[in-house]
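Batch 3, record 17
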Amino acid sequence: MAPTTHSLRPLSCWKTIFRHTRLQKAATRLLTTQAQPKRTFEESKLIAPRRKSNFKILGPPPALKFKEPIKDVTNAQLAILDPTNARSTLFSKTNPEAAHVGDILLVRLKTGDPFAGVCINIRRRGIDTGILLRNELTRIGVEMWFKIYSPNVEGIEVVQRKEKRARRARLTYMRKPKHDMGSVQNIVLAYQRSRGALRGSGGAGTLGKDELKGGKRKVKGKGKR
Amino acid sequence: MAPKLPISWAQLPPTFLLPDTFLPLIAKRGVKYGWTTAPKRGKPNRFNQQTAGLPTLLQSPAAALARKARTLPLRTGLLAIKKGMTALYDPETGVRTPCTVVQLDRVQVVAHKTREKNGYFAVQIGAGSKEPGNVTRPLLGHFSGAGVSPKRHLSEFRVLNSAGLLKIGETIGPEWFLEGQFVDTRSNSRGMGFEGGMKRHNWKGQPASHGNSLAHRLMGSSGPSQGAGSRVHPGKKMPGRMGGHQVTQQNLKVLKVDAEKGILVLNGAVSGPKGCVVKIQDAIKKPWPTIPAAVEDVKEALHATA
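Prediction for the assembled complex:
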């Protein structure tokens, strides 16, 4: 049933009026809609020919194959500083015999006296890998950083291993009085004596004495500083 | 409103009574389509020529170039990508030198800027590569005109004169710099975001106690009070965006040059994160490096001998 339109008050019944016109509009649209044949690709090209680029786009030259130059530089340095790969294996994570935090290490230097102490931190940074050793000299706690690949470091020896694996990566708690190991001088001296004995009775014994002397001198030297 | 008086009692007689010379200047030549097609007038400061007996202008383009003559490099620089930092040890002395490794990626000369056309001499350098589909057509034309592939990074390097304009399309390698020479680097520093005054301007902050409440890192007063204007003076340092701006590092020594790997090892630190673009040019505060004969000349000589 067609809705009745109120001729006197059209403002109140716009909806009904528009419903009618809407239907009409739809009808006319249906009548006038005409299907056009779809243009083929060739025809569309004829109507609007694609502008041909008159310049040549060049391909990029081949890229360099060296994607990790930092590694290259590091490896080149390691080949010079650590040709036998001894230092790398000593601090390698894959090596079960490697030095760990908590071990007592002895660092022999080219210039100056050797330094020994508990390793409380290993900072692995490629060529900049360093270790932090803690000891007590003249009853004062001393910590020293050593770069393991530095040419000034002649050798690094493991004096004593920690009997139980440390459960921390950095043993900073060893700075607290409760956990401080104190001086490791006696352990190092004992180690050096045994090494001297192992090396043989001949010249090695004197060498051991020299080392001992060195150790003593070191204490004095550090005290003066 | 008062009646408008005549502008001048000595007004000119009607134009038809005047000779041609008194007529207002109206452009007759070169007027077409209603506007002038005559060449542009000369620059207004042309009156101040050497012959005019007046002091030479200090704000002219020529004066600006003369001022820069001492500090403009003789040859172009190049673009590199920062790859990170490491250290070099001297096996003899044991001295450790911290260094930055930068790598060159298909660095080519793309365009020139000349005094005649642009007012200064510069070399436009492109580096890296870009998918042509991601480059706009005007830029594609620019690259193809130079005979180079689309580049990811473009930068200009000013040079002193036309002698410093390297041939367009020429590839530059790290051997452009010599081992031991000094360079300046420019790169955008790490962006820190919106930072407080303590970090951004190295302020001290405020005491932790003595009645301080919630104001330990505040900037404090931002200016004087009544009498001084009761306002914040322009340029007052305040919290805000920190980093992400260009930082120049001067006089970095070139420690190593590896043409095969395309790397340069520079002494010390270069601002910016890994992977950032670094502009490298000869140091302006050191004597210009003495570069061996141009590569082309050497090539010819080699061909002649071979």
